Amino acid sequence: MENYIKEAKHGFKLDKMNSHAFQVNEVKMMLSLLVYNLTNWLRTLTFPKGQKTMQIETIRTRIIKVASKLVKSGRSLYFKLSSSFVYQTFFWKVLTQIQQLQLE
Predict the structure, then answer these.
(1) Is the whole-model pTM more than 0.85?
(2) DSSP string covering 58-76, please?
C-alpha cells in the first residue's frame, strides 16, 4: 500500500498544494486521483503482462510524451511517429489493446 501512496504523491504531485484555499486544493487532489485511477485502469486493461507494474514516470515517457504528428488523409486519421522513437512497439501494442476494448 505504501508504494501506491508514494506513486500518487510523487507521480501526480499530491504532496504539493499550490493554493491557500481549501477548495482549490481539494479540486486539485480530486482531479489528480481521477487521473491516477484512469492510469491504473489503462495499465491493468491494456499493458502487456511484463509491463503492468510500470511507474507513472515510465508511462509518461513511453506513451504520453511522444513526439508525433496527427495526419488526416481523406476520412482517416493517422499517427506519424518518429522513426527513431525507441518505444514504438510498446506504444502500438497499447494503442491496439485500447482499440480492442469492449466497453458497455
Answers:
(1) no
(2) HHIIIIIS--EEEEEETTE
41-46 long-range contacts (CB < 8 A, ≥24 apart) are: 42/94, 42/98, 45/97, 45/101, 46/94, 46/97, 46/98, 46/101
Chain-centroid distance of CA 26 in Å reads 22
pLDDT in tens, 32-68: 889 888 988 999 999 988 888 888 888 888 888 888 8
Beta bridge partners of 45: none
What is the CA 85 to chain-centroid distance, rounded? 17
For the chain, domain boundaries: 2-99
The rounded percent of the chain whose pLDDT value lies above 70 is 99
H or E stretch covering 14 = none
The total of other beta-carbon atoms located within 10 Å of residue 13's CB is 13
CA distances from 84 to 51, 67, 68, 73, 88 (A): 21, 10, 11, 23, 9
